[in-house]
Design goal:
The chain is an alpha+beta fold. It has a domain at 30-86: Membrane-bound Lytic Murein Transglycosylase D, Chain A. The chain has two helices and four strands; from the N terminus they run βββααβ. The strands form two sheets. Strands 1-2 form a two-stranded antiparallel sheet. A two-stranded antiparallel ribbon has the order 3-4. Strand 1 and strand 2 (22-24) form a beta hairpin. It starts with 13 loop residues before the first strand and ends in a 7-residue tail after the last strand.
């Protein structure tokens, strides 16, 4: 299955196994540029994405916006002292 041209995995090498199934070769995903109006937040021990979403957006359910803005590592690998991009909250039109 081809990767969408708007995917961050577009133009990434694909591999296939002996049965012909395609896989995307794993490589580090480069961080996205911080959108205008973003805030850089330095994590304090124990902070979670839903807590940050509540703080910055007044909505815990918007944690995924922060995760999407910081694709370089999995959220469970973040720790105290790491800097995260908090993108501005924009509503879909």
């Amino acid at each position: 299955m081809p990767v969408s041209v708007v995917s961050r995995y577009n133009n990434v090498e694909t591999l296939s196994d002996e049965e012909g199934r395609l896989y995307i070769a794993q490589r580090p995903v480069p961080p996205l540029a911080a959108p205008p109006g973003s805030v850089l937040h330095v994590l304090i021990g124990g902070e979670t994405l839903d807590q940050l979403a509540l703080r910055y957006y007044a909505r815990e359910d918007q944690w995924w916006r922060i995760a999407d803005a910081n694709p370089g590592r999995h959220p469970s690998d973040w720790g105290a002292g790491d800097t995260l991009v908090i993108p501005p909250f924009t509503k879909a039109r």
